[in-house]
Amino acid sequence: MVVSSNGITISRLRNGTILHRFPSALPNGSKKGLSGPASSYSILDCIFHEPDETYYIVDMICWRGYSLYDCTAEFRFFWVNSKLTETSAGDPPSTYHRYRFSVVPMYESTLEGLQAAYSGSTPYVKDGLLFYNKHAHFQAGITPLTLVWKDNTCSQYLIDTDSEGQVPTEQHVVLELQEDGKLVTSDDPPIAFGSLDNEFIQKSNLRPGNLLRFSVRDESVKLVDGKMEIGQLQLAGKLNRSRTFADSHSKVLFQYAARHAPLRIEDLVAAVQSNSMEIESTDVEMQVIQG
Q1: How confident is the model over 214-235, as pLDDT tens digits?
Q2: Contact predicate 148/157, CB 8 Å
Q3: pTM score, two decimals?
Q4: Which of 105, 158, 99, 163 minimizes the C-alpha distance to 128?
Q5: Is the pLDDT of residue 280 over 60?
Q6: Does the pLDDT of residue 173 top 70, yes or no?
Q7: 65, 115, 247, 267: most buried by Cβ count inside 10 Å?
Q8: Domains (range + CATH), the chain
Q9: What's the chain look like in SS3?
Q10: Phi, psi dihedral angles at 271 (to 5 degrees)
Q11: What are the boundaries of the signal sequence (predicted)?
């Protein structure tokens, strides 16, 4: 999240840690750019791309104190493009503008848009396609109205890797330990994939809220009514504090599918070409994202 207010711009990682504190050409983002009420602020959802020192804007949450939480995705994307051009935030870095801001490419979810997003070039390394429901309001966390899709062509990170950047032989999942010993996902409500007994928790010096990594054997996984059931979890270690959330059920399921029967780009093309999808595609927009 990037927030510009009171003559300074601050960006924070997902765990709340400050990434950068800098002057920018965003509204009230630097001492030079102070304008309007001192309480006026802007909030952008961005990905920082270090090679070109650019913040790529994924979404706009607030602009000059005007909240966009209750605005549709279609309207928010319109404002991202139109309001950014009213500032010099897209200009190269300068004394009062440390980092450049740019909007990620956005396309209609038509066959042409899908092809452009999938095969078109970007100034960063792609990490999948992000699908938005046009009429959806902004919602933090997990929502079926915003979905990410990846394959080996449009993402280097289709399958999660270990600390050494290698794909483990078994799927790994990150779950949160609750007070009753259950191991749950980050969903609301959370989904339990297993549990630990009190004796093991005490011997391992674990506490509620700890994020734990587990390996999953393929033979222990069952798919029941679109949900995963894991018969056996093997503890692989405790995560450090830089990670703030457990995996969601959809991520665990996506990673399992990516290893065994991934959804292919041909499947998306076929869906777009179908009559029902042609009608629904008017309610969807797509972004090309990067990691």
Answers
A1: 999 999 999 988 788 999 999 9
A2: no
A3: 0.84
A4: 158
A5: no
A6: yes
A7: 247
A8: 2-103 (3.30.470.30), 106-158+263-290 (no CATH), 171-260 (2.40.50)
A9: CEEEECCEEEEECCCCCEEEEECCCCCCCCCCCCCCCCCCEEEEEEEEEHHHCEEEEEEEEEECCEECCCCEHHHHHHHHHHHHCCCCCCCCCECCECCEEEECCEEECCHHHHHHHHHCCCCCCEEEEEEEECCCECCCCCCCCEEEECCCCCECCCCCCCCCCCCCCCEEEEEEECCCCEEECCCCCCCEEEECCHHHHHHCCCCCCCEEEEEECHHHEEEECCEEEECCEEEEEECCCCCCCCCCHHHHHHHHHHHHCCCCHHHHHHHHHCHHHHHHHHHEEEEEEEC
A10: -65, -40
A11: none
pLDDT tens per residue, range 74-124:
999 999 999 999 999 999 999 999 999 999 999 998 999 999 999 999 999
What is the rounded CA–CA span in Å between residue 46 and residue 287? Answer: 13
Q: Counting every residue, how long is the chain? A: 291
Which tokens sit at 239? 């995560």
Structure tokens at 202: 């005490």
The token duo for 26 is: 């965003």
Can you tell me the distance from the alpha carbon of 91 to that of 107, in angstroms, rounded to the nearest whole number?
23
Q: Which residue has 């396609």 as its token pair?
A: 129
